[in-house]
Design a protein that fits this description.
Elements: H1 25-33, E1 39-44, E2 46-59, E3 66-79, H2 80-89, E4 93-100, H3 104-115, E5 123-125, E6 132-139, E7 144-150, H4 158-171, E8 177-181, H5 190-200, E9 205-208, E10 222-223, H6 227-234, H7 241-255, E11 259-263, E12 269-273, E13 277-280, H8 293-306, H9 311-325, H10 336-343
Parallel strand pairs: 1-4, 1-8, 2-6, 4-5, 8-9, 9-10, 10-11
Antiparallel strand pairs: 2-3, 6-7, 11-12, 12-13
Helix pairs in contact: 1-10, 2-8, 4-5, 6-7, 8-9, 9-10
Length: 344
């Protein structure tokens, strides 16, 4: 693949399509095989996703809303906890740093983490705020009727923030990669991100961002905005690869990070760093639910980079992982076996 400077080249190359050549697929499988046992530190906003599933057969006589007849309830890890779950499913050993409340949802988070073989020792309990919980009412055809959010999204401070930063420093000692999962729910503060950047060293630091914190991500290895976040941050409409190239370059300059990967849904991804840029077409799948797909992308990226993948290889592996997970319901995970099969 031809290489091109990402920033302000005098003569810009034609738009590149980054495709893994057939002779390199064996290398991709080898990278996935090295996932097992790698230690990854995840810091961010921990959530619980609860799904109330039922059937809709009529409209309420009290108001123009559907009546959902309850059938089942499902609980999933969300936010940074879903990132950790994806890492564990791919074979990594995970340290998870974040905030929960002193409530029933926090107990459910700990139960779900235990079932996924993820330790909860680094969770900081804040009795003054609830555990972030999203309750979705969904039909048996996976159509969302309503969502109720339980949360306090003001940033943590004082002893809570100090405890988070302390956990990050301790857990980073033997980590092969670092990841920040920012959902603007209060756990991710400038102090926390600065602590992650300060201890990064040569290890990859991947950030799943939110636009209001853009100035905090300076020094990160890779930032992964989605299409809407990129358009909001750059004030650019992205309707083509040329638009994506310009927006990714601007986003990279604004965030002062080494690399940017813009996720564009069915349009695939756009990769931009100091050495290469290009479009990665989406892996064709039947889409069931896009919830949590960004978590899967971030988890796969940091794990692939920690396993020795190039940025382009990591992005293509993440692209395959996203293609798998959108075919599943709710926040879901991908196994190393599924990823290897998708590549093949």
């Amino acid at each position: 693949m031809a290489r091109a400077r990402c920033a302000g080249a005098a003569s810009r190359p034609a738009v590149q399509t980054v495709i893994l050549p057939p002779f390199e697929r064996g290398r991709a499988a080898g990278i996935v095989a090295r996932f097992a046992g790698l230690r990854i530190l995840v810091a961010g906003d921990i959530m619980l996703d609860r799904f109330l599933v039922g059937r809709v057969t009529r409209i309420s006589p009290e108001a123009p809303v559907p009546v959902v007849r309850f059938d089942s309830e499902h609980v999933r890890l969300g936010g940074a906890a879903n990132v950790a779950h994806n890492l564990a499913a791919l074979g990594a050993r995970v340290s998870l740093v974040g905030v929960v409340g002193a409530d029933r949802a926090a107990a459910a988070v700990r139960d779900q983490l235990s079932a996924a073989n993820i330790g909860a020792e680094e969770l900081v309990e804040d009795p003054a705020r609830p555990t972030t919980e999203k309750v979705r009412i969904v039909t048996d055809r996976n159509q969302q009727v309503a969502r109720i959010d339980y949360e306090h999204d003001h940033e943590v401070g004082g002893e809570i923030e100090q405890a988070l930063a302390g956990h990050v420093r301790r857990c980073a000692a033997d980590a092969h990669g670092l990841l920040v999962s920012d959902y603007l729910k209060g756990a991710v503060t400038r102090r926390l991100i600065e602590a992650m950047v300060a201890i990064k060293g040569p290890r990859p630091l991947v950030v799943d961002p939110k636009v209001p914190h853009l100035a905090c991500y300076a020094g990160a290895t890779l930032v992964t905005p989605n299409l809407h976040e990129t358009e909001t941050a750059t004030h650019r409409r992205i309707r083509s690869d040329d638009d994506a190239r310009a927006a990714a370059r601007q986003f990279r300059e604004q965030a002062q990070c080494a690399s940017v990967l813009v996720t564009r849904g069915e349009a695939g991804m756009w990769l931009c760093d100091a050495h290469a840029e290009g479009s990665i077409p989406a892996v064709a799948r039947e889409v069931a639910d896009v919830t949590g797909a960004g978590d899967t992308v971030a988890a796969t990226l940091v794990l692939a980079l920690a396993a020795g993948a190039t940025l382009t290889e990591a992005a293509m592996l993440a692209n395959h992982a996203a293609g798998i997970v959108v075919g599943k319901f709710g926040p879901a995970t991908v196994t190393a076996e599924e990823l290897t099969e998708s590549i093949s």
